[in-house]
Amino acid sequence: DTKMEEQISSIVEALKINAEKTPDKLCVGDKKNQVTYKEFWNMVKKAAVYLQEKGVQKGDMVVIRGAQKVEFLLGVFGVQLAGGAVCPLEKAIKDDRIMEIMNFVDSNIYLAEKPVKNTTVNNISLKEMFKVVQNNEAVTPNENTDNSENVVLNESSDSSEAVNSKEFSLPASDDLSEILFTTGTTGKSKGIEVTFGCNIAIAQNVIDSVGMEKDEIELITTPINHSLAIRRSYGAIYNGSSIVLTDGIKFVEDFFKLLDRYKITAITFVPAILEQVLKFAKDRFATYDNQFHYIQLGSAPLSETNKEILTKMFPTTRLYNTYGATESGCTVILEFSKYGHKKKCIGRTTVNTEILFVDDRRNIVEASLEKPGILAFKGKMNMRSYYKEPEITKEVMDEKGVVYTNDLGYLGEDGLVYLLGRQGDVINMGGIKIAPTEIEEVAMKHEMIKDCACIPIKDEITGEAPKLFVTLNEGYQLDQKELSKYLLSKLESLKVPKTFEVIDEIPRTFNGKIIRKQLKALENN
């Protein structure tokens, strides 16, 4: 199996292999549809024919809009088998931003449930494509193309000679698989080039990180266009296990129906979605402890409070928080049900990851708590580059393919990685490095605090000092003396913020990360 795995060049090829090995096993499901590996592979082949007839050619970039359904993954694999690459966009994106991205990635092909209103775009309907590959109905030509012939896939899904006799070239390892856009909250939104080989390495990291079993049935609650969700999907398909997609937790009842219907054994959350479940159905959720093998969170740090809550709720379930980036996928993982007591710990490196600690000049250093280093990662899971951005690429990646972060940390004597925070966010108080998260986690436990965020401010004596922005729970006013006294009982005196400020809302990304840049701007105005 290991030799075979080494020869697999793409997740598309892994899907084909698993369709032959376990044809009747569930591949992907959602609220309405579920397909086995054999069914899904046959649908992907039909989708590739459909897309080629609609104008998708080898090397084309197809912009695809997120839909938390089987259709989305069918579109992704169909494009890749047809010889193209995908650029996934979020579900709520506006038309002008779609056009901006399409122009940037040199694409005029848009695959989505609803068309974008622009006459230069070749709109392909995701709904129609799904309907055709399911029911073998006639394909109507696009309004924006001159192709007047209908394509008919009129054989049954299991014995379609028209499709099965067609020779498809499987993607090569170094071909472009997708361009993933970062959210742009810390600067300009960037397009990250990911190869098929990179996705194989990330899939192996994903499987290794949580000990994913062959019979795993994982519920993915995060937006499918996001790197966390699409990579969890790739990991499961590479592994030959099963995935179920759901559209966040809009309706708690639907969430529990999926848990029961598919007998879900694992879940992927972002912290913001987990908090919705804890808020509305905590006790009911806890009754699934014996059903789950693991729960994994990613894309944003999980608060210490929620780690403690989950650990109590799920005593026999493995609980993980992943550290990684779109530029370097699934690099470090913390099993906090096992190591939750280790403060600032983000866990162990995954199977394809080599971690380095460097100084500002990218020289490798012996990092420690007193003298932390900048985290850098070497391995096949790293991106190829930022699309059309050679200068920005050089800022985070060297010619050897090492990706450099802005995070400060070190490797502990226990072999685990410890993170202090982002360079610029870590508070340097007279040479002592303070992690803002440490202060936030303690403050969040006080009854008056609804939310908070800590930033460094200038200090005449120590150079920098912590300042805490807070939002208050209903019925409370800020009592600085009381809050300082409370923090002093839990933290060293130098870590207690010098100043506090009440604001209406702590700025956060969709997945819960604090946007400290906005708070620093607020402080400096």
Report what the structure shows.
The protein is α/β, with parallel strands linked by helices and 525 residues long. It is built from 17 helices and 27 strands. It has a 13-stranded mixed β-sheet with strand order 2-1-12-11-13-14-15-16-17-22-21-19-18. Strand 26, helix 16 (480-490) and strand 27 (499-502) form a beta-alpha-beta unit. The longest helix has 17 residues, at 37-53. It is globular. The model is unreliable at 137-159 (pLDDT under 50).
List keywords for this structure.
525 residues, alpha/beta, 13-stranded mixed sheet, four-stranded parallel sheet, 17 helices, globular
Q: What would a concise description of this structure say?
A:
This protein has 525 residues and is α/β, with parallel strands linked by helices. 33% of the residues lie in helices and 26% in strands.
Lateral arrangement of strands in the main beta sheet: 2-1-12-11-13-14-15-16-17-22-21-19-18
Number of helices: 17
Give the % helix.
Answer: 25-40%
In terms of DSSP E residues, the strand content is 25-35%
| Unreliable residue runs | 137-159
* N-to-C span: 60 Å
Class by helix and strand content?
alpha/beta
Largest sheet, strands/sense/barrel: 13 strands, mixed
Secondary structure: number of strands:
27
Rg (CA only): 24 Å
What is the overall silhouette?
A: globular
- Mean pLDDT, all residues: 89
